[in-house]
Amino acid sequence: MIEHVLSFLKEQLNSYIRVKTGAQGFEVVFLQERNQKEVSFQNDAITILLVNLEEDYTFRSGAAYERMPNQGGNPQKNPNVYLNLYVLFAANFTNYSQSLQFLSLIIKFFQSHRLFHHQNSPMLNSEIEKLTMELVNLPFTEQREVWAGLGMSYMPSVIYKVRMVVFADAETVEIDSDITEREVITTNI
């Protein structure tokens, strides 16, 4: 589901920037991986990258299972998991002024589009009820740690907290308890 959120945000931002700049070929991109130890941001592009996620305990039930009284009995259901995603948008342009212009467009877009739901964004994945965008203010030390973790020097960027991606598995999959560590289970996600 996380991939749906990032793809949705990428496409929405693409559409906005194309309208604002008239650059029909412009493309917000995902991070390029050269190998396991090195990352690279595409030149003359905005890159979107998940830098962290956290569980939001505000709406979480303390019970081990949720009760489902309308299901004809009380089958056990694990409580939903509520996640907040921290998404980095980095503007990597050879012209520094252009990087700042695109960074400004990103901020303007999310200022005017703070809430996405099915009424204002019909292309939002059906598993996602809504997304709320919140600008994150990182202190200089934490900002330095993010860029050091990427193995890069700072470039014009902004981080948004994407609130409340709800994980709920409607279909329970029974797992054989005799599975060894070498066996891999695959299911359609």
Mean residue pLDDT: 82
CATH topology: STM4215-like
Shape: globular
Please write the string of helix (H) and strand (E) elements: HEEEEEHEEHE
Distance between the termini: 8 Å
The radius of gyration is 20 Å
* Second CATH tier, the architecture: 2-Layer Sandwich
- Spans of 5+ residues with little confidence (pLDDT < 50)? none
Tally of distinct domains: 1
Structural class: alpha+beta
Strand tally: 8
Tell me the fraction of residues in β-strands, as a range. 25-35%
Strand order of the largest sheet: 1-4-5-8-7-6
Question: What is the number of helical segments per DSSP (H or I, 4+ residues)?
Answer: 3
CATH class: Alpha Beta
Oligomerization state? single chain
Query: What share of the residues lie within helices?
Result: 25-40%
Q: How does the major sheet shape up?
A: 6 strands, mixed
Question: Can you offer a commentary on this structure?
Answer:
The strands form 2 sheets. The chain has a 6-stranded mixed sheet with strand order 1-4-5-8-7-6. A two-stranded antiparallel ribbon has the order 2-3. The protein has helices spanning 2-21, 96-112, 140-150; strands spanning 29-30, 32-35, 38-40, 45-55, 81-92, 115-117, 130-136, 157-167. It has one domain (2-65, 77-167): STM4215-like. A hairpin with a 2-residue loop joins strand 2 (32-35) and strand 3. It is an alpha+beta fold and 189 residues long. It has 3 helices and 8 strands. It is 25% helix and 28% strand. The mean pLDDT is 82.
